[in-house]
């Protein structure tokens, strides 16, 4: 059967595959559209497997709540162009709905959650990798449950916040705390959460950069402790000055609302991933030679 533009269009609408891939699939199956769908999937999975070791440090973070349960997760791609792809963003919504309606809290569990399409999250990411042409993967997830849950998603889809409170705090106030977390990027919820390794490293830096010449031992010790305390206040949410009212800390603000902030999660796309600089001109040239 002849491969027509109409057949290519029909296959593309069915599978979301690229035009040239659709043409190849139809040519390989003598224009049989059902067999072409199978061909695309088999070859797509092969392509996806080849991309498994590539670095995906762009993408989207997303937080969502239904009032009793909240989730925040990050799905990575290789370039930031994909985050503007409608099909990719539809996948994000599907994953968000499925995870929110589940009881999972770990990445391993999340990957096995089924979407409305019947695919698991892991399978849907593989399919997206095959059709979009970039490595797509769910990188991490956090979930909370409780009476007062607040979420915030920054407009650029790269920063999301999930908070869980106990007490009487209003949603508007909880949302403002979320925005503070997004803007100020605290590393820890409270000073009690700061690892000793972090404290030791900061104290070493403080000692190396502070002139204590001529200071009595007790005075010098007080200066060092004061500087460390100030540093810890900069990186812990409850100690930070509240952006909506810098006269009080976030902790004091939450306390004034007769509440306790129990859990904090702030996801920023790509944080902690070592990005690989790609020479796209060289890559394209290599493909042309191949």
Please supply descriptive tags for the structure shown above.
290 residues; alpha+beta; Helicase, Ruva Protein, domain 3; Tetrahydropterin Synthase, Chain A; 3 domains; 3-stranded antiparallel sheet; 11 helices; 8 strands; elongated; EF-Ts_dimer_sf; elongation factor; Transl_elong_Ts_CS; Elongation factor Ts; Transl_elong_EFTs/EF1B_dimer
Compute the separation of the termini in Å: 30 Å
Domain module tally: 3
Task: Tell me the total number of β-strands.
Answer: 8
Q: Output the CATH topology of the largest domain.
A: Tetrahydropterin Synthase, Chain A
The biggest beta sheet is recorded as: 3 strands, antiparallel
Task: Give the SSE string.
Answer: HHHEEHHHEEEHHHEEHEH
GO molecular function: translation elongation factor activity
Protein name: Elongation factor Ts
InterPro entries: EF-Ts_dimer_sf (IPR036402), Transl_elong_EFTs/EF1B (IPR001816), Transl_elong_EFTs/EF1B_dimer (IPR014039), Transl_elong_Ts_CS (IPR018101), UBA-like_sf (IPR009060)
Keywords: Cytoplasm, Elongation factor, Protein biosynthesis
Write the layout of secondary structure elements.
Layout: H1 5-15, H2 19-28, H3 33-50, E1 58-65, E2 69-77, H4 86-100, H5 107-111, H6 121-132, E3 137-145, E4 148-153, E5 159-167, H7 171-184, H8 196-209, H9 217-235, E6 241-242, E7 245-249, H10 250-256, E8 259-268, H11 280-289
Antiparallel strand pairs: 1-2, 2-3, 4-5, 5-8, 6-7
Helix pairs in contact: 1-2, 1-3, 2-3, 3-6, 4-6, 8-9
